[in-house]
Amino acid sequence: MTLTLALARLAWKRLWRGKMVWISGLLVLVPLSIAAIAPRDRSPERRFELIVELTLRSLVLLVPVLHLAPVVGEESERKTYTYLWSRPVPRPTLLWGNLLVILPLAAVAAAATLAAAFALIGGEVEWLARAQAGAAAGVAGASAFALGVGALFPRHPLVVTLAWVFLGEQILPEIPSVQNLSIVRHATTIAGHGGDDPAGAALAVAILSAIWLAVAVWRIKRMEFGSAEG
Amino acid sequence: MTAVVLEDVSKWYGQVLGVANVSLTVGPGITGLLGPNGAGKTTLMKLIAGLLRPSRGRAAIGDAAPWSDLAARRRLGYCPEHEGIYEELTGLELVTAMAELSGMSRRRARERAEAALVDLGLADAMNRRLGGYSKGMRQRAKLAQALAHEPEVLLLDEPLTGCDPIARESLVARIRDLGAAGKTVLVSSHVLHEVEALTHDIVVMFRGRVLAEGDVYRLRELIDEHPHRVRVECDRPRALAEALIGEDHVTRAAFEDGAVELMTRVPDKLYDAIPAAAAARGVKIRALTSPDNNLQAVFEYLTEKK
Q1: Of A9, A18, A230, which is closest to B43 when you measure between CB atoms?
Q2: Of the partner residues A3, A80, A87, the one whose CB lies closest to the CB of residue B73
Q3: Is B259 exposed, middle or buried (0-12, 13-18, 19+ CB in 10 A)?
């Protein structure tokens, strides 16, 4: 745990001194802006549903992907892995340390965005609670997915994960045979805007997350970095 | 005292050979790992550091294999050759974090990090971000992160690269202290003079293989047998050549526009003789270079001899 915390501190400092955090900040503003300008002729329930869907498809998916997918690839590209893995640090600790920083931050950002949108729109508190639960599940699933795919494709982690977010996650929910692979679909169900089995959806997110994390751990443990140049 | 042991270690990168059949034991004190670029020095260091898994054979620190055993890496400090570094962090943050990751408490890690950075002349810069460091400062910060947790085994991959002469001198003194303190220090370089300044015990690598190991003087002798060219750019090349051609070790002189290329079997003697001859004849030297003053040429010569 000490090593995880040390790596989390490292990730925290790098996060706030990097540029990606500004992009995440802008993503937080998108649902809020839409909430502010959403047509008033629709019911509050319909307007809030629109914001929830937008939040789940953008902020909830993109923030973990932007911050966690490059974790392994950046270490490799900048060769900073040499500092970490020549030490008595189990390699998966790099994943846990970054997860410890990004997952709560993204979940809080999503929850706060939804709360602010809810304050603008109004409605029943239960809508907000379910939406926040869906967002939290979505952030967890997206974080695990980002780490898994980032470890599998360390040279182009953002290209692969963003392709999945913008294509896979938009198409998969519409295809019955594979729709259970969609994180957004399960998060939407938990948020109360589709499907009728939130417990089943939560279980599905947990299983998908476990699979992606297992992939990330498996890959990072076997990674070798080096070339014939030296 | 911890030794680094390599038993018949080979490493392939796909079809490309990194190192081949290396058997080596490195004990306490400083050992120089010498070879031209691409000789396999960095691959060998990465195998010892646990960053690479041997394709064949066994690499160990003490009895533990660094690839799979965290205990082996607990004894290790590694200063990589590359310039990659966490640029967003300050020098102090980097070294503290790395000492923590080596198993020190947070408080102790910070104390040791400060001490290591001060020791390496970065007292004023330790709270500045690494992104703003010069090459020489980065090199010292990299060395500090390798030393801060007081490891028994140090792997220093080209540690003097990019350092100015003053920094170089202080780093050499620091590394020699570590060797004298009984640490097992393996220092790689492609510059013979750098290694000579640190130790007489060397391992020579070329094309992934250990070509020779032992005393640096033996290598010196082999180098001296190798015909060596020295190019002197000056205002009167013929006058300089006349003064030097009488030396028994100078075997040939060839003239170019504003320069003379001298061939010798004893380069050190020639390097001593040139300034004296120039002073005696009033020749003004503009530049002095050697097309053969790189280990690549020497190693190719040695390989051909074998």
Answers
A1: A230
A2: A87
A3: middle
The complex's ipTM works out to: 0.86
**B98 part of contact set with chain A, CB < 8 Å:** yes
Q: Taking the alpha carbons of B114, B116, B119, B124 in that order, is the dihedral positive or negative?
A: negative
Beta carbons of A78 and B85 less than 8 Å apart: yes
Q: Which two tokens stand for residue B42?
A: 């960095």
The pTM for the full model equals 0.82
pLDDT tens readout for residues B199-254: 889 998 988 999 888 887 777 676 666 677 888 999 999 999 999 988 888 888 99
Torsion angles phi and psi, residue B46, rounded to 5:
-65, -35
Structure tokens at A31: 């649902």
Nearest to B147 by CA among B181, B124, B106, B192: B181
**Sequence-separated (6 or more) residues with CB below 8 Å from residue B84:** A78, A79, A80, A82
Please report, for residues A114, A116, A154, A200, B13, the alpha-carbon distance to residue A131 in angstroms, rounded to integers and kept in the order given: 7, 12, 33, 16, 50
State the best of B10, B41, B75, B100 to mutate against chain A, taking most chain A CBs within 10 Å.
B100
Q: Which residues contact B220 (CB under 8 A, 6 or more apart)?
A: none
Q: How far apart are CA B39 and CA B25, in angstroms?
A: 19
CB B85 within 8 A of CB A80: yes
Handedness of CA B117, B121, B123, B125 (dihedral sign): negative
Cβ contacts of A96 on chain B, cutoff 8 Å: none
